[in-house]
Amino acid sequence: MCQDQMVVCDEVDDLLTLLVIKRDEASVQNFKTGSFMWFQIFIEALQRMNDLDTARRDLVSLCKLVYRDNRIELRNIDEFRREYKAGDAIRWYTRPACFYRLLNRALRFQTYDAIISFRLLINNISRQLENEYHKQKTAIETGGGRSVLIVYRGQRMGTTEFNEIRSSRGEFVLINSFFSATTDKTAALVFAGATSTEKEIPVLIVIKADMKIEAKAFADIAHLSVFRDESEILFMLGCIFCIRNVSQNSGENYHTIELVLCSESDVPIRLTDTFDYYIKHKLPPQTDMKSLAHSLSQMNELKTAEKYLKRAYRETPDNELQRLEPMTGMGHVADEVGNYKIAHMFYKYVLKKRQQLLLPNDLLIGVSHVNLGVAYYDLKEFDLALLQYKKALPIFNTGYPKKHPDFGHDYNNVAVAYAAKIDLSHANELLKKARDRLRKAGVPEKHPVTAQILSNIGVIFGKLEDYDEAIRLQQESLEIRQICLPPNHTDTAKSFHNLGIIYDKKNELDLALYHYQEALRMMTKCVPQDSRDYKNTQLRWGW
C-alpha cells in the first residue's frame, strides 16, 4: 500500500458505502451476500486475536509508512505508540488524525492487509462500543427512557449507488465499516453539501434505531469523543438496515434516504445457519495468524492468505508440530491455484512429520492423509488418492463422534476417487452417504461442502449420460456457491465449467459457450493463467 494510493482517497474519507442485498435469492446480487458473510467471519476471527504488542507494532508501522512525509501525522503516530490505552479507542477514532481515515478506508474497500494491521483499534472500538451499548440499553430498560433514536447523517453519494438504493425500497443494506450519525439534523445537512453534480448528489440519511431489538451495537459516544458537543452516535461495523423510503421534498436540494436498523432475525438472508455453523465449529475461541489466513483462504484471497501463513510460520515458537499447521495452509493455497506438485510436497512432508511426532491414531494424521489424497487426486494418481482416503477413515472412526462432518468430507473424497476410476455406482452410493452424514452433523444446506457434494453427484450423472439430472444437480450446486461464496471464487468457476461440459455433451452449444465464458472470466481473477484448470476451460471454449 503506497502513500500515493492513500492520498488520492483522502477526499472520500467521510463517504459511507451502502451495500444493497436483494431478497430474491436467485439474484446475482447475492454474490454480495457471500462477500458480506465471509467478511463478517474474517472480522470475527480478527476480534478473537489477543496479540496486543504485535498488533500495536503493526498499526504503528503501517501508519508511519503511509504518512512517512507528514510531520504532523508522524507526531500523532508517535503519541499513539507511547500513550494509547484500550479505554481510549473511541477517542482516538474520533480524533482528526490518520487513524480514522486509514481505518475507514481499509474497511470500506476491504483492504485486508490494512484491516489486519488495524486489529488493535478495531477490537478495542468494538468492545468499548458494545460496553456503552449495554450500559445505555440497561439504563433505558430500568429508567423507562425512550429506546428509539432518530439520527441523521449527511454526505455526498455517487449517482449509481443512489439510483440502486432508490430502486431498492424494502430491501436491505449492509455497512461494513464503523460510522457516525448525529441527533442534530441541521449539523448533518452541512455534510451533505449544497448542490448535485453529474457524478454525486447530496443525501441526508435518516436512521431509526431501537435499542430494544437484538441488533449490532450502537451508542451515544459524545462523552468518549474528542468532539463532545456533536451529539455523535456510533454504529458498529456490520450493521444491517432496511430501506424504508427514498424521497425529495420540493424546495430541497438533497434527497432523503430513510433506514431502519434491523435485528438479525428480520433479515431474510439465508446464510444465518452457515455463518453460525462456521463460527461455532470452525473458529477457535482464541485465534491467531493461522486462523486469519484460513478465513482469507476461504474467501479466495489466496495471495494474502499465503502471506500470513508464511508470517505465522516465521512467528511460531520453535515447535516443529505447531509449524506444520501453516505449512498445511500453504499446501491448500498451492492446491487452489493449481500448483499441485507444490501442494503434494507440503502435504507429504506434513504427514511424514506428524507420523514421527504423534500417536498413529491422532486425528491430525487422518487429516494429513486426506490432504495428501487430494494432492494425489489432482495429480491424477487416483489409486494413491484412494489409498490415502481409506487410511483416514479408520482414524476418523476412532477419534470422531459418528455425526462429525469430516466423515462426510472423506466419503466425498473417496467417492470422487472411485468416480475417476469409473466405478460410478459405488461413487454415487458414497456421495449420497456423504450428504447424509453432513445432514446428520448439522451442516447447513447452504454450505460450500454441500455444494461440492451436489456438484460431484452431478458429475456422476453426467458420466451416466443422464444430462437433465446432471444439470439439475450442478445448477443447485452453483446457486449455493453464488449465495455463500464471494464473487469470482474458484469453486463457482468450477460449477460454470461443469455445466458447460454437460451442455456441450447435449449439443446445446450456446449454453455451453456461455458457461465456459463465465468460468474463464472468474478464473482470470482467481487462478494463474498457466494453471491446468484455466487451460482446460480455454480448450473447452475452443481457444
TrEMBL record:
Provide the leader sequence positions.
Answer: none
Cross-referenced Gene3D superfamilies, in alphabetical order? Tetratricopeptide repeat domain (1.25.40.10), Toxin ADP-ribosyltransferase, Chain A, domain 1 (3.90.176.10)
Protein source organism: Didymodactylos carnosus
- TPR repeat intervals: 493-526
Q: Which UniProt keywords apply?
A: Repeat, TPR repeat
How is this protein named in the record?
A: Uncharacterized protein
Cross-referenced InterPro entries:
TPR-like_helical_dom_sf (IPR011990), TPR_rpt (IPR019734)
